[in-house]
Amino acid sequence: MNRHLIGTIAFLLIILSNRVLGRTSYGYNKEPEFAEPVRNVTVAVGRTAQLLCVVDNLGTYRVAWLRVESKTILTIHQNVITRNYRVNLSHNDHRNWVLHIRDVQESDRGGYMCQINTVPMKSQVGYLDVFVPPEILGSESSSDVLVREGFNVTLTCRSKGYPTPTVTWRREDGEPLAVGNWQNNMIQVSKFVEDLSLSAKVHKGAQLNITKVSRLHMGAYLCIASNGVPPSVSHRIILQVHFPPLIWIPHQLVGALLGSDITLECHTEAFPTPVNYWTKEDGAMIVSNMKYTCGTIEETYKIYMKLTIRNVEPVDYGKYRCFAKNSLGETEGSIRLYEIHISSPNEGELSTSFLQSVNGKKQWINNSTVGKPAFSAEGDADNRRGGKFNDHTRKNDRTSRNSSSSSPELPGRFKKDQLTLIIVNGLLLGAYFLLHFELSAVR
Ligand SMILES: *[C@@H]1O[C@H](CO)[C@@H](O)[C@H](O)[C@H]1NC(C)=O
Ligand SMILES: *[C@@H]1O[C@H](CO)[C@@H](O)[C@H](O)[C@H]1NC(C)=O
Ligand SMILES: *[C@@H]1O[C@H](CO)[C@@H](O)[C@H](O)[C@H]1NC(C)=O
Ligand SMILES: *[C@@H]1O[C@H](CO)[C@@H](O)[C@H](O)[C@H]1NC(C)=O
Ligand SMILES: *[C@@H]1O[C@H](CO)[C@@H](O)[C@H](O)[C@H]1NC(C)=O
Ligand SMILES: *[C@@H]1O[C@H](CO)[C@@H](O)[C@H](O)[C@H]1NC(C)=O
Ligand SMILES: *[C@@H]1O[C@H](CO)[C@@H](O)[C@H](O)[C@H]1NC(C)=O
């Protein structure tokens, strides 16, 4: 019984001592094993990639790194074999073997094998993916484009990168790309953006085809290439649409009072930017001076022409023409300036008092509120027919009597006796208070 116990203890001691020495009684050397798989690695070009191989119980065996595709040996044990100066190795405790690849190139993309020289050999493979940020190929992309209105135009933006970049288009001013057959190619960003109208602001693809280009397409376009690897890049293309001038006149008949200042307006659209000028009935070109001010407000292809005539005299009535001329054509519009006769000042009590209050019968005429109705005369159609002159004139007079009132709180509807009544009432009230005050003072 005792001997048996001693034998058991001795056996346990042997096992323990073997354990301490890293050996087992079942075999002198335990086979090396991979502690974990070699992980796949993704890096952007130019960065450093690290592939890690973890081996347990390496013992006297050795670890090597190889390229899978070319079967070239990169490292064996602690030595770097490859001539590629970008490759290096680090290890600790003969357990973690890290392959370093500096300044990663696209050619480094592929499989890397970590191998242990057991028989048969053991190996694991990890893949290195190399991302390349997008780049726009300027030579294969559109530069600024000039096209005649009505033609088809294609804007191109070629890009490269890995993964293959997607190219999206938008207008620099944020306006939707809209209109044209190519609307069919719209991508639905609405998945992310609730507003459906926003989806029309973006077009996807290397080419932006615009059928029957119009002046509305004119502007700066941006193509943006992105593939998830920062930074995204963009390219700017200016689209210019050429078309001959067009003139639109809001008021072809303009009435003005003698001595007033009046402004005639012409709206033109043309590209390239036209030459704009005004002429009088005799064809003489009008230049800015004491009498006239010619102004233009330009907004891309739209030009707003303004001619101000100061202190209108009888000779100023008549026909004026505005001209717009560019390389593609020329057009003109005409405006007739006619005289407004103010109705007799004695016609209404209020206009009389008004004229008196400013002591000068012409002074109120050049007041802008008087002149305005002549410009903004609604119903151009009526004006153009020309049959409603008098009606129009009288309408203005009525307006002027209302709006030119220096004291609008005193409406013309008040009859003289009504006014008197108010004044009398006021006086009576005043008298009552005075009386009341004196009575209380006496008490
Ligand atoms: C690593 O990449 C390869 C090839 O791209 C793939 O087959 C494998 O499943 C990936 N392994 C892991 C752990 O993601
Ligand atoms: C390679 O790595 C070792 C240790 O990690 C380091 O001492 C050595 O400078 C590295 N060589 C290069 C070329 O980076
Ligand atoms: C423009 O494109 C449309 C449709 O793609 C085609 O029908 C038309 O002939 C083209 N016009 C020109 C001037 O190329
Ligand atoms: C755009 O037009 C070009 C020819 O100019 C054509 O090759 C291309 O397929 C068109 N793209 C689309 C999306 O219609
Ligand atoms: C109205 O115009 C005349 C000449 O055009 C000028 O002498 C007068 O001062 C103007 N009246 C007012 C109130 O500005
Ligand atoms: C015309 O009336 C406006 C107020 O409606 C006033 O501000 C302006 O000074 C007046 N102009 C003249 C010339 O009297
Ligand atoms: C002028 O006054 C009349 C009566 O007070 C009013 O019906 C009319 O709308 C006014 N007109 C304008 C242009 O203010």
Automatic annotation (TrEMBL):
Sorted UniProt keywords: Disulfide bond, Immunoglobulin domain, Membrane, Repeat, Signal, Transmembrane, Transmembrane helix
Q: Which residues form the signal peptide?
A: 1-22
TM regions (residue ranges): 419-437
**Does this UniProt record's set of keywords contain Electron transport?**
no
Region of interest: Disordered: 375-411
- Cite the SUPFAM superfamilies for this sequence: Immunoglobulin
Tell me where on the tree of life, at the top rank, the source sits.
Eukaryota
Composition-biased stretches, type Basic and acidic residues, lie in 381-400
For this protein, the record's InterPro entries field holds: Ig-like_dom (IPR007110), Ig-like_dom_sf (IPR036179), Ig-like_fold (IPR013783), Ig_sub (IPR003599), Ig_sub2 (IPR003598), Ig_V-set (IPR013106), Neural/epithelial_adhesion (IPR051170)
Q: Does the keyword rRNA-binding apply?
A: no
What PROSITE patterns does this protein's entry cite? IG_LIKE
Q: Where is the Ig-like domain?
A: 32-126, 134-234, 244-336
Protein's name in the database = Lachesin-like isoform X1
Instruction: State the organism named in the record.
Output: Limulus polyphemus
Tell me what gene encodes this: LOC106462659
